[in-house]
């Protein structure tokens, strides 16, 4: 089968028509749940079919502890499979699945086959391999067979399989062929279904029938990359391109898949944001306009290129009986009061500890465990956790019931409800509120690109104020590594200005706003973009802005492996170059300086060690001038890990004084609890923000702060 290359087709060449809906006689299944089938990564052990289920299409839980439900070794030529697509048959009770037969470690141009699978119950599957190169002549230069999918052709009364292939130096094109009656082979040679008239290649096709038309979602490659749609009134021909990208992100995406929500007229378009290791979910009614719903979606796994199938309660129960377990039900607790990233589970002793948000009523608290058909959790009403743990019994049909001990306690640390680091804190005279400005964390290699702000009236309850600066949208001179911001408030006449200093691409910029929550406008260039004279090594990062209460002068401090300082000009967006000074305190200095003034003394705090180390800690020195020299006390530890409490990597802090009081607090980040101690170096970009009280001795020296889970009590202004 030689490649058949056609000339590019314009949309005007095909008039739009409406097709008659396919006469697919599917019994009334009363679908009420969803099955998500996916794989997880590019290692051979990750290139396996996995299942997850959901009650609502938004919140998915992995089955079988996120392990494979079908062995790739048993069904494939290569030992690995990817890109699973699942379909309910026209009879309503038979299921079909097709997957790419491929191990990526052997190369992206290494596979020639797909695997066809069939099941009557979603649990037991038969399979067969179709090697395109071996089966069909004329494919000597075939390089790859990718992402097969299946749809029922009511006119032909057959199952059509469609996928992308690349032959030689030609671009990837989407082909189709019909499966035989037993769904074990292709009955005819592949034919071209669609190619991209505006891009070099097209892959990852997904066809949805709606309003009399077949909508083909696919990924373009070559000149530009993303998800586009072509439509036709016929399943196998005449697709007209709508030359618009429909993904709602600037990141690289692939594996688009659409499914209809049960009992609604709404659809979900989801796709793999593969360079960021995440999925994006969008909602639509017309398959033309898409709204991001990521904030509504939860998953306890990280899928790659998968598909979702609506299923019945009976089918969901069958899956849970086969692959469900009590541990996952315990982990599924979704009460809004629970700090999801701080739940600690002891599987061996069957106990779980929920850290709950401030002001939770522990005398009547319900963890709200997610259950599926075939599962019962008792008790299922609010319980009194104020005097101790509560016993819960989980019963899964066909399995022995298990009892778990469940604890719940109000802990104020961590404070922001997500992964954040490098916090800078400010009290605003304009709003009479506190604000925290952190690094957005949880991205591999500190690769975040946006900044958020959080507000509070009491240092305990914090409100997410949203993104205040996005490098990709708001900054022209850098688009990566959004790190370690700081801010200052200035009253000018009767109004206020906010000067926000931030790191991007290992440079320091400044943005300005009229409000502490933005929007902030970047100055248009980096403020600090080169190493100061006298500094050896290090990076131009981690700014701190300080106004000397004695003189009113404004200073910017920065540096990694060195500490530099310069006086800011009155415009606050430029420095007096002649004032740049190196003032590194000692060899313990790594980064993250913060400066404050108390009782005639200037305090300099900094972080020692590496943020990926559990021994990351804060030390200090003091001076009688904002320009040093810095004197270092013999005992100068401010805060360090408490390994017994599971608190590790405590560093990169800022300090806040309660207005009008000699009451001080240290704001810092730590490794995420409880996962941090198992994550290795990646704990260094999965951090969370905490607050504890800072106290001083009578001679002005700082007492070591013990980091806590409990945190602080609400502050009264």
From TrEMBL:
Stretches of the chain forming a coiled coil according to its record: none
Biased amino acid composition, Polar residues: 1-13
Name of a matching Pfam family: Glyco_hydro_43
Example GO biological process: xylan catabolic process
Keywords: Carbohydrate metabolism, Glycosidase, Hydrolase, Polysaccharide degradation, Xylan degradation
Highest taxon of source: Bacteria
Record-stated family: Belongs to the glycosyl hydrolase 43 family.
Annotated protein name in UniProt: Beta-xylosidase
């Amino acid at each position: 089968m030689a490649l058949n290359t056609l000339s590019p087709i314009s949309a005007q060449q095909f008039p739009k028509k409406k097709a008659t809906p396919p006469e697919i006689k599917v019994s009334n299944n009363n679908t009420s749940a969803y099955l998500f089938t996916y794989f997880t990564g590019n290692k051979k052990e990750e290139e396996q079919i996995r299942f997850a289920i959901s009650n609502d299409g938004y919140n998915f839980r992995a089955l079988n502890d996120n392990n494979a439900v079908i062995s790739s070794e048993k069904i494939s030529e290569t030992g690995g499979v990817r890109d699973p697509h699942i379909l309910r048959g026209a009879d309503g009770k038979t299921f079909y699945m097709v997957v790419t037969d491929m191990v990526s470690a052997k190369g992206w141009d290494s596979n020639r086959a797909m695997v066809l699978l069939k099941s009557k119950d979603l649990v037991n599957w038969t399979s067969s391999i179709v090697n395109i190169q071996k089966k069909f002549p004329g494919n000597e230069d075939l390089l790859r067979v990718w992402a097969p999918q299946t749809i029922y052709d009511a006119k032909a009364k057959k199952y059509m399989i469609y996928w992308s292939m690349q032959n030689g130096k030609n671009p990837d094109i989407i082909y189709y062929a019909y499966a035989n009656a037993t769904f074990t082979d292709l009955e005819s040679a592949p034919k071209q279904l669609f190619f991209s008239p505006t891009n070099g290649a097209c892959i990852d096709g997904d066809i949805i029938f709606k309003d009399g038309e077949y909508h083909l979602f696919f990924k373009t490659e070559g000149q530009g990359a993303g998800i586009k749609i072509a439509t036709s009134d016929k399943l196998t021909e005449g697709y007209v391109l709508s030359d618009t990208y429909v993904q709602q992100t600037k990141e690289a995406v692939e594996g688009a898949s659409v499914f209809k929500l049960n009992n609604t007229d709404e659809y979900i378009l989801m796709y793999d944001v593969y360079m960021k290791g995440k999925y994006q979910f969008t909602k639509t009614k017309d398959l033309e306009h898409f709204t991001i719903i990521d904030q509504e979606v939860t998953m306890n796994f990280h899928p790659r290129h998968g598909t979702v199938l609506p299923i019945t309660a009976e089918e969901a129960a069958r899956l849970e009986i086969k692959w469900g377990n009590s541990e996952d039900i315990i982990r599924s607790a979704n009460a809004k009061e629970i700090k999801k990233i701080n739940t600690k589970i002891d599987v061996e002793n069957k106990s779980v500890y929920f850290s709950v948000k401030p002001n939770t009523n522990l005398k009547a608290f319900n963890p709200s465990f997610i259950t599926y058909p075939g599962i019962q959790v008792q008790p299922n009403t609010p319980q009194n956790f104020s005097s101790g743990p509560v016993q819960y019994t989980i019963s899964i049909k066909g399995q022995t019931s298990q009892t778990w001990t469940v604890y719940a306690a109000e802990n104020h640390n961590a404070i922001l409800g997500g992964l954040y680091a490098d916090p800078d804190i400010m009290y605003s005279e304009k709003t009479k509120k506190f604000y925290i400005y952190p690094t957005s964390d949880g991205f591999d290699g500190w690769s975040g690109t946006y900044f958020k702000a959080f507000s509070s009236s009491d240092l305990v309850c914090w409100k997410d104020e949203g993104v205040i600066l996005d490098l990709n949208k708001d900054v022209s001179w850098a688009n990566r590594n959004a790190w370690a911001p700081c801010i200052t408030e200035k009253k000018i006449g009767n109004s206020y200005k906010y000067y926000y200093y931030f790191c991007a691409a290992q440079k320091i910029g400044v943005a300005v706003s009229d409000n502490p929550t933005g929007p902030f406008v970047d100055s248009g260039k980096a403020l600090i973009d080169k190493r100061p004279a006298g500094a050896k090594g290090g990076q131009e990062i981690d700014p701190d802005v300080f106004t000397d209460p004695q003189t009113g002068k404004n200073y910017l401090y920065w540096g990694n492996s060195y500490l530099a300082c310069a006086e800011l000009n009155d415009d606050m967006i430029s420095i007096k170059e002649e004032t740049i000074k190196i003032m590194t305190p000692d060899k313990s200095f790594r980064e993250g300086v913060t400066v404050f003034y108390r009782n005639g003394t200037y305090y300099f705090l900094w972080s020692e060690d590496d943020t990926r180390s559990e021994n990351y800690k804060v030390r200090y020195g003091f001076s009688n001038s904002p320009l040093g020299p810095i004197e270092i006390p013999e005992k100068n530890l401010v805060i360090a890990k408490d390994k017994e409490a599971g608190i590790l990597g405590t560093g990169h802090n800022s300090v806040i004084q309660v207005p009008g009081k000699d009451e001080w607090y240290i704001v810092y980040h730590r490794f995420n609890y409880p996962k941090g101690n198992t994550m290795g170096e990646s704990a260094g970009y999965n951090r969370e923000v905490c607050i504890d009280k800072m106290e001083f001795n009578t001679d002005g020296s700082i007492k070591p702060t013990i980091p806590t889970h409990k945190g602080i009590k609400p502050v009264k202004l």
